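Session log. Operator J.P. requested a structure for one protein chain; no other inputs attached. Running the standard single-chain path with token output.
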Amino acid sequence: MADLPRVSARPWQILCGLVVSGFLLALPGGLLPLWGFHIRPDFGTAGNFFLVLGLGVVGGGALAQRLARNTSLERLLAAGYFAAAAALLLLAVAAPPAQTWYQSAALFAGGFAAGIMNTAVLEAVSPSYETSPATITLTAGIFFGAGSVLAALLLAQSFGDSGAERLLALTAVVPAMAGIGAGRLHIDTVRAVPEVSLTQSMEDLRSPLAILFALLLFFQFGNEWSIAGWLPVLLIDRLGLSPSTAVTLLALYWAALMAGRIIAAKLLRLVRHGKLLGVSAFCALFGCTALLAAGSRFGVVVGILLTGAGFSAIYPLVAERIASRFSYYHPGYFNGIFTFALTGGILAPFALGHLAAETGLKAIPLAVMMGSCAVFGLVLLIWLGHKVSGH
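Structure written below.
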């Protein structure tokens, strides 16, 4: 194997790692009804699953950063693929009567693999990111969204005769084969992103602009992952949909996010980025309101489409603005702004699970709508700050 010639990696070959990452991180939304949480409403335990998954992402990303100093990017990418295959095998046997501790461990493994994969991919595409942050982040989001759509569609079929165990076990073959292929690639080593101490990066949060950016991403990550995690259980409880239909609508949400990023990538050349950011935030707010008020399947579909389309462009456009203001900002590294923002995606679905355990599932869409109001308000504040400062 060592004697085989290495092939220079093309951008799409690198970004395919995000398909696997998106697949892993989208699984909990479909696994909750598969594991019976729509029948046994232990929402606090379900919320803990999201916390465990998020901790796995942080742990995998931190380890990958250390390994990247002495390991080639192709090997790091291959390691992410093999870790993903192992995690899928663990999740294949995590359905009840499996114990909660085992389910948590399997989800941690999935988050850990995704963390390695995200870091390897984002490091490998650094040259493209530095040239055009919004475009490369949107493209990466499309690949990530494709994996998320596949995960939801696969789990939607798991409520029939086939069974989730066999389907997840079979999907483990794909990242395993991709890991073998990644080992034969050659990824050019690029200039390393300067290391920034935690103290130095946290100092940025003293700046009003940095605080606004960090809060915007905090709420945005929380909104996206709250919908992604709780939508199927919410629809089953609210409209009496079958688990299969509810998880299929989760796939529609991921598809709306992906389609929105494709459209936004085209609009970047035609529309001012600030205006596009404002329109996206308004669309997300309107979609969440529609989702909260919907009493029929049609209303839910409209709300999902508007919410997904609105969410799709917010993070890439905000990341672009942060990158232009903070030279060392890189989405694959846990600097102060990104670390704070990532906690929104981890803590929001976790906290909503415990809130739903006390007040019911109606708290989830209401909380997401309030989060969307916060995002819209922060976008207006940032826009106003740019006007006042003249930048």
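Operator note: The mean pLDDT is 80.
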